[in-house]
Each structure stands twice: as C-alpha cells, then as structure tokens.
Design brief:
single chain; 268 residues; alpha/beta; Rossmann fold; 11-stranded mixed β-sheet; 6 helices; 23% strand; globular
Length: 268
Amino acid sequence: MKPKAEIGVFGGSGFYKFFKGARELAVQTPFGAPSAKVTLSEIQGKRVAFLPRHGVHHEFPPHRVPYRANIMAFKELGVSRVIAPNAVGSLKAEIRPGDFVFCDQFVNFTSGREDTFYDGPETTHVAMAQPYCPQMREAGIEAARKMGLKFHKKGTVVVIQGPRFSTTAESRFFSRQGWDVINMTQYPEAVLAREKELCYLNISLATDYDAGLEGDPSVKPVSHEEVIKVFNSKMEGLRRLIVEILKTLPQKRTCGCGSALAHARMSA
C-alpha cells in the first residue's frame, strides 16, 4: 500500500485550522483505535498526518491516552517522522511562559501505562540514551532561530502521571534535580515512537511555572485555565514553527532512529 503520510503531528484541537483541503481517515490498529480520526493534508510539499493525542474534545486524560494505537496509526500510514508539540510547566525562572524548549532528555515518573509494543515472546530492549531525534531537533532549532522565537536548545522534561498537577513539594524536588520542564504525556509516546523506528521531535511550550516559583510569591501555581490561555495565545506561532520545520527538514534521514531495532532484540 502506498504511504498516505510521511510526517505525523500530534497536538490539540486548535490545530484543525492548520490544515487546508484536509481529509479525515479512520484508522484501526492491532492496539485499538487511536484517540481520533487522522487528518491528512499536504504542507510544504510533504504529506502530513495530524492526530489530537487527547481526542477531538480532550476526552482522554494523560494516563488514558491510547499511546500505542496513536503511534501505530502513524506507522501504518507510512509516517517516518513525528512532530510532537505539548504544553509544559517551567521548573526554572529563565524558562518563561511563552518560551519554546526543544527537549533532549526525559525522566519518567508515570506508572501503569502500556509503554511497549513488545510484551514477548520476542524480548526487545530499545536504546533510549538519546530519546529525541538529533536531526529533527537541529531542524527545529534552526527554524525557531530563523523566526526569531524565544527558545531553549535543550532541556529535560520530567513526566508525571497526572491528571492532577504537582504539589509544591514535588515541584520543588523536580526543580532541585536540575530538570527544566514538566509534562504528563511525553512518556511513553517518545519510547513507542523509537520502538517503531520513527524519528520524534518534542516541542515544549512553557505555559506556566508549575506549582509556583520559589522565592517569588507573586508567581501563582498552575491552573488549567492559565495553561489553555497561554497555549492558545501561542497557537499561531506554533503552527508557523511547524511549517518552518517542514521547510527546513532534510528529505533524507541521517540519524539512527530508523534502525533502532537492529541491536535491540534478545535471542537464544
């Protein structure tokens, strides 16, 4: 079957305006249905598939997102690269609400999520030392630089279970570890993409200062309303950034993401 898409984009319902002349496609996978129908379009000469990870009406909370079905839907459509924007809380004063962060590491604090395609009998240990595609990160950084955006070239995202936000003590702990931003969906999404040998780019948009900023009582703890307000205010900039990344991204993959399983299998 001819691939229907080459780039996959995760995001929220506001991205529907991003696609012109788009068509919807229902996809079924061995891991069930993805969180919504996939929207297909062509942007910058590239076939792009969009999927809202939380569903069209945000009906899937972070711990219930069908991550395996979502990644598998992209894989079955022929996608080889994934762009994954998401809202994050900042754990550092220098990462201000409205800033973009191209994360290069994550730390997982979730539990109980279905986080692998390989439950046996074929044992697979995929390497995750560098969890985000270096080639895509370079394209993202270059695109943000061209646009004059406020961004950070790297960062560690700590992934919490949700759906609740952190306590002040938890947020203080994460910050004191030297981690940069906090989110609820980067795990297992990034790992599952690697298991399917997809390149994966995280674009974190800081919307708040998590449980506040230590030493500054004027900074209030995060609220859902504030997250949505800041994210929506940056929606157009995020759309333009993705278009610029599609323009900047080389046609050929030169990273190691496409051969992630070559040395990951254990056999007798």
